[in-house]
Write a structure and sequence with these properties.
This protein is an alpha/beta fold. The chain has a single domain, classed as Aldolase class I (TIM Barrel). Helices cover about 40% and strands about 15% of the residues. Strands 7-6-5-4-3-2-1-8 form an eight-stranded parallel sheet. Helix 3 links the parallel strand 3 and strand 4. Helix 1 runs parallel beside helix 2. The N and C termini lie close together (about 10 Å).
């Protein structure tokens, strides 16, 4: 059985002081939910402060991005070597990175390689835009993103001792992010079951596909979280806006409990 994973993507919100306050509000409630893996992904500037507050808890820390090189003349970038000292997870290929910063599948591929090389667990984001959804090419888009994003990798033998894949995938229909309009639970599960897992099976084998946690992302709220988590092929959520409100994020995490 895949252990549910709920990750909070804080995006470009929260100063260091605000981050400390939010984590202090979250930790007691999250600690009480033992059957779910919890991850907080604050801005780079708040990572050290959040890391200190999470020490001794079972709550993981993640970054929102990384550069694919270990070091170099890349002003303003953060390398996987730097992140490996601080956190366990990293979000890669988020739709906002793709839309606003021109990240294409090949770039996502480089970043995933770098993350895995340095022992980080990538949360690889895939998803279709509204135009692609309305054109009926969701399957084609997701298929391409996974194949190109994971191209030239040998992951079939990278399953951990606890039978867990070394990465997670977040299916985030772009038209549902920050719009308040979530995909239906059945529709999201169909994409995971009929597209994402079959492509992973073809690329890396059944064991890898069945051990990879696939999250839903896109206007996840306490009111709709359980609908998604009750689906057989959805293993948690990548939460945006609701992860900035302690009570909401705790409620969503509780809904994922086994």
């Amino acid at each position: 059985m895949r252990k549910p994973l709920v990750a909070g993507n804080w995006k470009m919100y929260k100063t260091v002081a605000e981050a400390r306050h939010l984590v202090s509000e979250m930790v007691p409630g999250l600690q009480a939910i033992e059957s779910v893996e919890k991850v907080l992904c604050p801005p780079f500037t708040a990572m050290l402060a959040v890391r200190a507050l999470l020490e001794g808890t079972d709550i993981g820390l993640g970054a929102q991005n990384l550069h694919w090189e270990t070091s170099g003349a890349y002003t303003g970038e953060i390398s996987p070597l730097m992140l490996a000292e601080l956190c366990q997870y990293v979000i890669i290929g988020h739709s906002e990175r793709r839309a606003y910063f021109g990240e294409v599948d090949d770039l996502v591929n480089r970043k995933i390689r770098a993350a895995l090389m340095h022992g980080l667990i990538p949360i690889m984001c895939v998803g279709e835009t509204l135009e692609e959804f309305e054109a009926g090419i969701t399957e084609e888009v997701i298929d391409r993103q996974i194949r190109q994003g994971l191209a030239r990798m040998e992951l079939g033998d990278k399953i951990g001792q606890q039978g867990q894949s070394p990465m997670a995938i977040a299916y985030e229909p772009v038209w549902a992010i920050g719009t308040g309009k979530a995909a239906t639970a059945l529709g999201a599960n169909a994409v995971v079951a009929n597209v994402i897992r079959p492509v992973l099976t073809e690329l890396f084998g059944e064991e890898f596909a069945s051990s990879t946690r696939v999250l839903y992302g896109g206007s996840v709220k306490p009111e709709n979280a359980a609908d998604f988590f009750n689906q057989d092929d959805i293993d948690g959520a990548l939460v945006g806006g609701a992860s900035l409100i302690a009570t909401d994020f705790i409620s969503i995490t509780r809904a994922a409990a086994i």
